[in-house]
Design a protein that fits this description.
44% of the residues lie in helices and 12% in strands. Strands 3-2-1-4-5-6 form a six-stranded parallel sheet. It contains eleven helices and six strands. By secondary structure, the chain is α/β, with parallel strands linked by helices. The protein is globular. The protein has two domains: 143 residues, 3-Layer(aba) Sandwich (Rossmann fold), CATH 3.40.50.1000; 63 residues.
Length: 212
């Protein structure tokens, strides 16, 4: 097999969380700043170096208030969170092929746990989970991906990273792993992803079996 290790982003790749993320950012901007910010502007930073950095881009002097408003709005929404089930169905096939799977996300461990609690069985598919709590630098820096590679005792050359944002592609390239961009996340458009020149671009989950 080409890549014995396959790492996945979480938001917009494994879980259908894009709408709730943008809704919570919209709520934070309205409640804290009294501003209406277009959804495409809010979505542009999603998947990058974490929530605080996203809020810093909106208002550097109100980051703490924006983050608090976001989390208060966002965490209850996890009660209705759904996975991209077509992707989840591919995971056992990858494992049956002998691949080792992991998650690399910019979410905090506590928020990742909300997703796992809502979606029983998802966590069991993965041997390693790297969250925002595990590295000082976050995507698009390579550090989170390299942390997963190190924990698994493997190498970048044996690893692919699957994600739905331009930050995922940049991080994968910076880490020296195979960059797979997916088009089902609903947060970033195809043209935004393809501009980053990923090693592979797929629109359907079963296509992963062909590119990995």
């Amino acid at each position: 097999m080409r890549f014995p290790v396959v790492l996945f982003d979480l938001d917009g790749t494994l879980i259908d969380s894009g709408p709730m993320i943008v809704a919570s950012m919209r709520h934070a901007a309205r409640s804290v700043l009294g501003r209406e910010i277009p959804d495409d502007v809010l979505a542009a930073a999603v998947g990058g170096p974490g929530l605080s950095a996203q809020m810093h881009a909106l208002a550097p002097d109100r980051v703490d208030d924006l983050v608090a408003a976001y989390r208060a709005h966002n965490e209850p929404l996890h009660d209705d969170l759904e996975a991209f089930w077509e992707v989840v169905q591919v995971l056992p096939q990858l494992r049956e092929q002998g691949r080792r799977l992991g998650i690399v996300t910019a979410k905090r461990a506590a928020t990742v746990q909300l997703a796992f609690d809502r979606l029983p069985g998802l966590e069991a598919s993965f041997e390693v989970v790297i969250t925002a709590d595990d590295t000082e630098r976050h995507k698009p820096a390579p550090d989170p991906i390299l942390a997963a590679v190190e924990r698994l005792g493997t190498s970048p050359a044996e690893t692919a990273y699957v994600g739905d944002s331009p930050f995922d592609v940049r991080a994968a390239k910076a880490a020296g792993v195979y960059a797979v961009a997916v088009g089902w996340g609903g947060i970033h458009g195809d043209e935004v992803l393809q501009r980053e020149e990923p090693d592979a671009f797929v629109r359907r989950a079963e296509e992963l079996l062909g590119v990995l």
